[in-house]
Amino acid sequence: MTRKPLGVLATALLGLLLAGPAMSADLYVAGGRTSEDSAALKLEIDRHFNLHDWHPQLSLRLATGVLLLSSETESDEGNAAWLFTPALRYTFAGERRVFIEGGIGASIFLDTHVDDRELSTAFQFEDRLALGMPLATGELNASITHYSNAGIQSPNDGFEVFAVGYRFPL
């Protein structure tokens, strides 16, 4: 896949995400390691939607951004992916406002290799689970994300990203 269509698609979806009623957007920055011990950096813009009509402690986050991966092998220059990440959030009652979020999103990688892993397809599902809490003007969280093509094509050598992130209000 060439970089130009990926950029056009990401720009269009980012515009759709940020358009609409006057709702605040957030910048999410997370750093961590993959299950292959490569460095990972995630940058996303997201919007928060209250689902209080369904449950007072439930909300939805829609995010789009990029995942940048370094490589631990000399023959590989790393990888990058465009991400679309919906996440359902449950905020626990109490003063600390601790939350748990989970979601299944989509990603499109520039290369079908991550270190020694063969992804087979550029399209990968993104399964994410996070635990976090408000900190200063934003939110701090720890997350585990699994990338896999769900058996669309073999081999299906998925991988995980373990990260700590901070969400900044824009």
Order of helices and strands: HEEEEEEEEEE
Strand content: over 45%
Average pLDDT score? 87
At CATH level 3, the topology is Porin
CATH class descriptor name: Mainly Beta
Taking Cα atoms only, what radius of gyration do you get, to the nearest Å? 16 Å
Query: Distance between the terminal alpha carbons, to the nearest Å?
Result: 32 Å
- Unreliable spans are none
Content-based structural category? mainly beta
Number of discrete domains: 1
Q: Let me know the largest β-sheet.
A: 8 strands, antiparallel, barrel
Strand order of the largest sheet: 1-2-3-4-5-8-9-10
Q: Please work out how many helical segments DSSP would assign.
A: 1
Helix content: under 10%
Number of strands: 10
- Do you know the CATH architecture? Beta Barrel
Fill in the keyword field for this structure.
mainly beta; 10 strands; two-stranded antiparallel ribbon; 8-stranded antiparallel beta barrel; Porin; 170 residues
General description of the model:
The protein is mainly beta and 170 residues long. It has a single domain, classed as Beta Barrel (Porin). The chain has one helix and ten strands. The strands form two sheets. The protein has an eight-stranded antiparallel barrel. A hairpin with a 2-residue loop joins strand 8 and strand 9. The protein is elongated and about 50 Å long. The mean pLDDT is 87.
